[in-house]
Amino acid sequence: MRYDVTLPWWAYTLMGVGGLCFVVLVILSIRRNHGIKRSLFASPYTLWMILFTVLPCILIGYYAFTDTDGNFTFANFRHFWDSNAEMKEIVGEEFASSIPRGTVNVDTLVYSLWMAFLCTAISLVLGYPAALFMADRDMKLGASLVILFVVPMWMNFLLRTIAWMSLLEDNGLINQLLVAVGLPRAQLMYNSPAVLLGMIYNYMPFMVFPIYTSLSKQDISLSEAAADLGCSSFQTLTRVTIPLSLPGVISGITMVFMPSVTTFFIPRVLGGGNTMMFGDLIESKFLTEGNWNGGSALSLLMMLLILISLSILRKADPNGEGSGRI
What we know:
Blueprint: H1 9-32, H2 43-64, H3 75-81, H4 85-91, H5 93-96, H6 104-135, H7 142-150, H8 157-163, H9 165-168, H10 173-180, H11 192-216, H12 220-228, H13 233-244, H14 246-262, H15 265-270, H16 278-288, H17 292-316
Helix pairs in contact: 1-2, 2-17, 3-17, 6-11, 6-14, 11-14, 12-13, 14-17, 16-17
C-alpha cells in the first residue's frame, strides 16, 4: 500500500541548512587545526544521527501537533485518550454526550506495559542465574554457554519468532507429544501466554549479556574477603555479588523493557490478531489507516514514556556502569 506524504517546506529547508552547516564546520575544523583531527572522523556519524534520528523526531512532533491541513491542534492526543472522539466530532455535540469514552488506546497501552513488565521480570528471574552460572570462574563450560546464547541471535528476528509456530500450533511438536502420551491438545497459540513466551525468548539474551559482563568483571578478591569474614555463600551472593552487579541488571532491564513495550511483530504472529500491543496500534495508524498525525501522536507518547523510564533507571545507575555488554 502506498501513501503520498508531503513533508512541510521547513523540513526540506532544515535538511539543506543542516547539510550546509555540516560542510562549513568540517572545513573550518580542518583549517583551524591545520589538518584532520581524529575527532573529525565522527562527523559522518553526527550527520547520520541528525538526518535519521533528530530530524525524524522533529517531524513526528510536527505531525503529532497538526491535522491533515497542517493546522496546529491537540486533537490527535484527544483521540488517544478517547478513541471515540472522532466519532463524536462527526455526529455533533447533540449526540456526542450519548457516546461513551473509547478506551481502546489507553487499554492497549496498559496491556503493553503489563506484558513488558512480565517479560522483563521473567527474563530477570531466569537470566540472572544463567549469567551467574556462565560467569563462574570454576565453570569450564561458561564460554560455551555464552556461545549458545549468541548463536540464536545470528538468525533473523522474524525467523526466530515464526519458528515458534511449528512448536505451538495445533499440529505442532508440543501438541503431538501431548497426544502421544494420551493428553488432550492444548491451545498454545493466539493468546497472551504465547505472545509473552515469544517476547521472553527474543529479549532474554539482552538481559543475560549485561549481567554476565557485570559479573565477569567483578574482582574475585571481594568474594574471597567476604568468605574470610565469615559470610556464607548465600550471604556473599546477596551482600556482595548482587549489589555489585546492579548496573548490569539496570542495563538489562532497560534493554528488555523498552523493545517489549513497542514490539508489534510477535503479537501479530503468535497472538494471531487476538492480542494488540501499543506497537501494533502505532503500526496500524501509519500503514493501515494512513493516519500519520494520529500515529505520530502515539509515537510521541511512547517516546515520552521511554524517556521517563530511562530517567528513572538512570537514577539507579548514575554512572552508566551497566551500559557495557559483550
